[in-house]
Specification:
This protein has two domains: 252 residues, pyruvate-formate lyase- activating enzyme (Alpha-Beta Horseshoe); 75 residues, Arc Repressor Mutant, subunit A (Orthogonal Bundle). The protein has 16 helices and 16 strands. It has a nine-stranded mixed beta sheet with strand order 9-10-8-7-6-5-4-1-11, sandwiched between helices.
Length: 387
């Protein structure tokens, strides 16, 4: 079996950003001890299932959220120790923690490093004061720079997030922003296009005309500029929204995109786990932190939905995830994961036409991958190809 990836969700934030539709919640008080115990209980429950056919190897742990840098470092240390005891941890296991570059969170970075975290992911989002204010971030540009410098000195590996296609964003200013950030932390960049998500504050403001987003062509120009600037610092695109120095790719996220097994614990977490009988289970946990906590207390887990995926489900998910990668997908792996022949996984006639038009290509040693033009239109193209 593939090595496992483990995702641990911390659902709390100090502030809800107006663009965010993640499972994050603002609370005046958090019972850290109770949440640590509940995360530990869910981890033990899933380890027993995952290891039923023999101990699995653990390749990565990712603390996401929410804002996991609001966790107590002792909780992180406890969960790392338990995970690496319950599974056979790879010698070079990747352990990532997301953090915001506020001064309060940056002050805890050394404690997280001591807890076992060896890769930090900073939610910088912008280096423009006006953009940060618009995005509702609680840090300013100076704090972002200071946090990047501090994290660079503490962690062997560092990633940061930026949001592009902001209202009125100009290509030259975007290039300058990228250069500043990449000069400080040129290992890994995750890039997110600003989109309007239902239920967010931005959805209300955008609907009443408070701001407008760049047109598709302008957004595509900013996207292409990102690749050019990243390349100046040795970062190459390996996924539609991610750039890394060779060898610095996120191993945890690659597990998702390559459609490997992963565990997800914590409020609202999802997972995909191959059982001893060969079924691939898709699992979802309760989203509300208080109800999640209560359910774990009663049952040892807070699973609210669990489905055995059909062969067609598995093929679809493998393709939808894998075609985001620069390396593309290996049809043999898709067939093995889905238990379906390749011809039943894709629309062969449509795929051939899109290859002819230059949106997809067959790479050595036989992977199907989206081209540069295909990546720009991937969301529209995938429904045409995937059965």
């Amino acid at each position: 079996m593939d090595d496992l990836a483990l995702y641990i969700h911390w659902p709390f934030c100090a502030h809800k950003c107006p663009y965010c539709d993640f499972n994050s919640h603002v609370r005046d008080r958090v019972d850290h001890a109770a949440h640590a115990d509940a995360l530990s209980a869910e981890l033990a429950f899933e380890a027993a299932r995952a290891n039923a056919g023999g101990r699995r190897r653990l390749a990565s742990i990712f603390f996401g959220g929410g804002t996991p840098s609001l966790m107590q470092p002792a909780t992180v240390a406890r969960l790392v120790a338990e995970a690496t005891t319950l599974f056979d941890a790879m010698p070079d296991i990747e352990i990532t923690l997301e953090a915001n570059p506020t001064s309060v969170e940056a002050a805890k970075l050394r404690d997280f490093r001591a807890a076992g975290v060896n890769r930090a992911s900073l939610g910088v989002q912008a280096l423009s004061g006006a953009a940060l204010a618009f995005l509702g971030r609680q840090h300013d540009a100076a704090q972002a720079v200071a946090a990047l410098e501090a994290a660079r000195a503490i962690f062997p590996r560092l990633s940061f997030d930026l949001i592009y296609a902001r209202p009125g964003q100009e290509p030259d200013a975007w290039r300058a922003e990228l250069r500043t950030a990449l000069a400080l932390a040129a290992d890994h960049l995750s890039l997110y296009q600003l989109t309007i998500e239902p239920g967010t504050r931005f959805a209300t403001e955008h609907a009443r005309g408070d701001f407008a987003l760049p047109e598709d062509d302008a957004a595509a120009h900013l996207y292409l500029a990102t690749a050019e600037e990243a390349a100046r610092f040795g970062l190459l695109p390996y996924e539609i929204s991610n750039y890394a120095r060779p060898g610095a790719e996120s191993r945890h996220n690659l597990a998702y995109w390559r459609y490997a097994d992963y565990l997800g614990i914590g409020a609202g977490a999802h997972q995909r786990l191959t059982m001893e009988d060969g079924r691939l289970l898709a699992t979802r946990r309760h989203r509300a932190p208080e109800e999640w906590l209560a359910r774990v207390g009663r049952h040892g887990h807070a699973i609210v939905e669990e489905t055995a995926l059909t062969p067609r489900d598995r093929a679809r998910e493998a393709l939808l995830m894998g075609l985001r990668l620069t390396e593309g997908v290996d049809p043999r792996r898709v067939e093995a994961r889905a238990s379906l022949p390749w011809a039943q996984c894709v629309d062969a006639a449509m795929l051939a036409a899109l290859v002819e038009e230059g949106f997809f290509a067959w790479r050595t040693p036989g992977n199907l991958a989206a081209t540069g033009e295909g990546l720009l239109r991937l969301d529209a193209l995938l429904p045409l190809v995937v059965r």
